[in-house]
Amino acid sequence: MNISLRQLKVFLAVAQHGSFSRAGEDIGLTQPAVSRCIRELEQELGLKLVDRTTREVTLTEVGASLSATLARVLDELESALRDTHGLAEERRGRVRVASAPTISANLMPECISACAARYPDITLMLRDQVQTLATDSVRHGEVDFGVIVASEGTDDLVGEPIMVEPFLVVCDRSHRFAKQSQVTWKELNGEKLVLLDYASGSRPLIDRALAEHGAYCQIAQEVGHAITVFRMVEAGIGISIMPALALPAMPGLPENGGRLVALPLVPQLDRTIMLVRRKNRTLSPAAQSVWELIQQITANTPHALAAKEAKAAKAAITTKPTKTASKP
User: Fold this and answer.
1) Which stretches of the chain are DSSP H helices?
2) Cis bond leading into 32, ω under 30°?
3) Is the whole-model pTM more than 0.90?
4) What is the pLDDT of residues 98-111, one digit of tens each?
5) Quick one: which of 127, 101, 323 has its CA closest to 201?
6) What distance separates the 2 farthest-apart alpha carbons in the chain?
7) Ranges of the chain whose pLDDT falls below 70
8) Is 303 helix (H, G, I), strand (E, B) or coil?
């Protein structure tokens, strides 16, 4: 049956007021509109619900039975709709977020702290994983969303860039680069490099840049964590190329007794950090709140990404990665 909620509400108003005109005044309809709703409802049911005379409107036996049941059903329906609307405003529960290690260590702690302060009824659970695993966790629904490095192979996800950050050269203070204000990609030719491995979202970007600038390097070590990279550079195993977000994990500056320095690479190479979630899946109110909170926090960082730049950065990630050029 093609019966509308409006028709049922009109009928109930007529039953309560015993008048088409008073029912119309109560629900904001004209008397002809009320009459039409009742007629359409009766036609759809194939039953007479009201008897109307010039003086009064009375319910038929069937109409009286329907009225008694309908009042309770509509009350329950309105209650259910109010509860559902309340869920849309609810900010509570557990939100699971996957992120790559440098992001987990240097961006997410602030986000977790801010979430606890702003939404005390939301528990933000971080899944600290390498890029490939973090992306798979989002894809398989193991987390609500992820914070990852923009890369190929994520076209099946909905992504929103939130910030960009440059890559830097990291070397020991005894290295010849330490006296320079910046380093060109070409100058890296012949250097031994300690890099994050291919589970990292940054590695394909670095490989491509080395090849494009003709920097033939020896990969001395490939490791999984930024702190390991820094310790190996300290030990003289090689120099490194790291994203700016990893620098808080770097040992102290030379003037404070540390051995490592970080220098700009020219031309500048950036990586884009983005929020990703599954396509055709709506975030829960709690997860949406956390998503927006991370947007707000990153908007206040030195590497904040404007909306226009974000779209351009996302569109630019189309070139296939090239293997690192090895020293002949």
Assistant:
1) 5-17, 20-27, 31-45, 61-89, 101-106, 108-118, 131-139, 203-212, 226-234, 285-298, 307-316
2) no
3) no
4) 998 889 988 999 99
5) 101
6) 104
7) 1, 54, 82-91, 253-257, 301-328
8) coil
